[in-house]
Amino acid sequence: MIRQDPLHRPCSLAAGTSGTAAVEFALLLPLYLFLLLGMTAYGIYFGAAHSVQQLSADAARTAIAGLDAQERQRLAHSFIERNADGYLFIQLDKLTIAVGDSEADASQFDVTLSYDARKLPIWGLWERLPMPDETILRRATIRMGGI
Question: Using N-to-C axis directions, what is the helix angle for 20-63 and 69-83, rounded to 10°?
Answer without folding.
Answer: 140
